[in-house]
Amino acid sequence: MSAGDELKSDLSKALPAQSLIFEREDARPFESDWRGLVSNSAEAVLLPADTEEVARIVRICAHHRVAIVPQGGNTSLVAGAVPIPNRRQVILNLRRMRTVRSLDRTNGTMTVEAGLTLAEAKAAADAEGLLLPVGLASEGSCQVGGNLATNAGGVQALSYGSMRSHVLGIEAVLPDGRIWNGLRALHKDNTGIDLKQLFIGSEGIIGIITAATLRLHHKPNRFATAIIALDSLDAAMTAFLRLKAAYEHDLTSCEYFTSQGMALALKPPAQNRDPFGESHDAYVLVEVTAQGADRDPAASLADALAGLFEDDIVQDAVVAQSDTQRAALWALREDISEGERTEGGSVKHDIAVPISAIPSTVRRLHADLAKLFPEARLNIFGHLGDGNLHVNVLPPAGGAPDQLARFAPEITKLIEQSAISAEGTFSAEHGIGQLRLQSLLKYRTPLELELMLTIKKALDPLWLLNPGKVLPVEEE
Ligand SMILES: Cc1cc2nc3c(=O)[nH]c(=O)nc-3n(C[C@H](O)[C@H](O)[C@H](O)COP(=O)(O)OP(=O)(O)OC[C@H]3O[C@@H](n4cnc5c(N)ncnc54)[C@H](O)[C@@H]3O)c2cc1C
């Protein structure tokens, strides 16, 4: 029997048929990343039904020395959840583990399995009048386990923080198959090293997250959403600072995009409409919320915007008058990535810099790209209030994507350098995966890399979990 057949035989003995995919054709959709950039084959795709099955899979794979690629919704933008070449691997997808194990309204917590999609987890909280304040355009597909493993950010991180701030407890299967039950629902617990933090953002390289206890918030009972049109990024920065000063925590989103992003969001098949009569250089989508009956955020946002008009900071603004209008404004921001896909894709980057360094960083990006590839289109958008900008470069309008491919390494260097020299980071939300590994080696210090490797080797000495992601592969 071949090594591959022996593995499949052991998996078949230990797991029910619904948990196993061995057919090549059935496995293929799991093997390519969301952007279609990376595709490598796996010996099997495993769909465990519960934590015990995950542990069994890990023990069998450890015995056969076959690596495991944990996979959630496979929406990673850095090819984190698909196999690497030249290594025996299986994909372990958590989509069948979608139980809401408990929801405690008094404690404001919910324990869910890792395969629940973010949208489903939010709906479960919403049904109890509670809020899981994580907003990603991928939320219909991405899973809570993937959100934890990537410490996802999104459009509400400005006010509520990234995924890490919503986690009180974690259950994970370790690389040797033991189950760690750290599902504590405590708002305070200082008893030694906070182990759950190791797993959050670790991109599946030291454990498979199977469940989590999440902290929920009370749902604000009123929102006000507006899109503001401005003539420059500098004006957008001024508007953000004024609104932040006025609302602080109640300013839950502040999303920036340009005329480039607006044009992409208006591309079919998206069915969006430009809310303004003419194009503007900059747009900011803001949302403010309120708890309690005495404050009307719509009226107060209208006042705040009137002040910005009076001071010549904004050129135009539209405040949503209904949930439908609110959704239509948000669609403009959320459909930018899809618009890039219809244009044949882009070289994508996800940088963060101190908020004060945003204008100079953007100026530098424009100047450097103009020298390297003047015809390219620069599409910068993102979470202004977090200093987090998605910096994407598209081929010239009507140009072929391979034109862009030739410049891609230089574009990457230029964008990463612009962030690093502003004391920023080359990956704010998307993580490292396979695509940013060389950048991690370049920009994190030797001591930081040594500490990361020490943790990896201590927990996963056989290098079984997600090899080739985050850290370079080191065998036994
Ligand atoms: C249209 C679009 C918009 C996006 N917007 C944002 C955004 O605003 N902010 C943001 O932060 N990200 C964003 N992303 C990126 C992506 O959606 C997030 O990183 C998301 O959290 C990934 O979840 P997932 O379930 O798809 O994980 P996957 O893509 O399946 O996996 C991501 C990584 O986590 C690991 N992993 C997955 N599940 C587990 C588990 N249970 N245990 C251990 N490791 C696991 C994988 O091995 C991989 O390394 C966006 C992506 C798309 C396509």
Would you kindly provide a written description of the structure presented here, covering whatever features stand out?
The chain contains 16 helices and 18 strands. It is α+β, with helices and mostly antiparallel strands. The strands form 4 sheets. Strands 15-12-14-13-17-18-16 form a 7-stranded antiparallel beta sheet, with helices on both faces. Strand 8 (167-173) and strand 9 form a beta hairpin.
Read across the widest sheet, the strand sequence of neighbours is 15-12-14-13-17-18-16
Helical/strand content category: alpha+beta
| Low-confidence regions | none
Task: Report the helical percentage.
Answer: 25-40%
Output the keywords:
476 residues, alpha+beta, Alpha-Beta Plaits, seven-stranded antiparallel β-sheet, 36% helix, binds flavin-adenine dinucleotide
Q: How are the SSEs placed, and which strands pair?
A:
Elements: H1 3-14, E1 20-21, H2 24-31, E2 44-46, H3 51-64, E3 67-71, E4 89-93, E5 100-104, E6 109-113, H4 118-126, E7 130-131, H5 144-149, H6 157-160, E8 167-173, E9 179-182, H7 196-199, E10 208-215, E11 217-218, E12 222-230, H8 233-247, E13 251-258, H9 259-265, E14 282-290, H10 297-310, E15 316-319, H11 323-334, H12 336-342, E16 347-352, H13 358-372, E17 377-383, E18 388-394, H14 401-421, H15 437-443, H16 446-459
Parallel strand pairs: 2-4, 3-4
Antiparallel strand pairs: 1-2, 5-6, 6-10, 7-11, 8-9, 8-10, 12-14, 12-15, 13-14, 13-17, 16-18, 17-18
Helix pairs in contact: 1-3, 9-12, 13-14
The structure holds flavin-adenine dinucleotide (FAD).
Residues 34, 69-77, 80-81, 94, 114, 136-138, 142-143, 145-147, 149-150, 152-154, 203-204, 208-209, 337, 429-430, 433, 466, 469 line the site of flavin-adenine dinucleotide.
